[in-house]
Specification:
- 39% of the residues lie in helices and 19% in strands.
- By secondary structure, it is of the alpha/beta class.
- Helix 5 crosses helix 6 and helix 5 packs across helix 10.
- The relative contact order is 0.14.
Amino acid sequence: MPKPPAACLIGWPAAHSRSPLIHHYWLRTLGIEGGYVIEAVPPDEFKDFIFRLSLRGFVGANVTIPHKERALALSKADERARAVGAANTLWFADGELCSTNTDVEGFINNLDACAGGWDRCDQALVLGAGGSSRAVLFGLLDRGIKRIHLANRTPERARALADQFGASVVPVAWDALGDLLPRAGLLVNTTSLGMKGQPPLELDVGQLPPQAIVADLVYVPLDTPLLALARTRGLKTADGLGMLLHQAVRGFELWFGRRPEVTAELRALVEADLTNT
């Protein structure tokens, strides 16, 4: 009897991840025999671990900090992973280890679910120039957003990222945000500002146009001050937990052969877990 398929999350540290909760929920509700476990793998053992992934009994893996760049280099990466410069999902195709970055579709599919029609906006304003910002920029450009202003507290990083993504991405100074907010149909926070234990994001949401949509990738706390302020203005919002759930869909489908759904029940399950920690 062949063993049921199993996937894992590889990180260092990795114990804080909600991925097992998400994938076990889908395995259970779809009636699939399978497994998903956490593997804490230090950086110096990562290469050996993924080269023996199949021998260890895994059909694929999620990859988290600090291994995403190494995962990209050690696998056959698709266009998304290469553009983002990091891989977070591994699977086998014809015996070859392949990789992608599902943060792109996690962000975009969550926006579609929370604020349908968001891609009709002319201009977006993205805060932050780290790895998650790359995924956001790729997704926005892929959906046809014509102009994206990119602000980062270290302006050189915003300039470097804008150079990689082309003329539609315009680096802007952090202190110019007040001038840009009235024109932003979509505001995306990819920084850690507003996260539990981090400084707040000092921003006047009141300057955004009345049809603007606000997305925050932070999910601890679930309801960031930015999102709470946006909602008091009646603006549509998309939160970090929604992105976390939607980014898990593709990996599950690749490993277990069924496309799962992000349901209210799953969200409530993960929300409760986040609230209890």
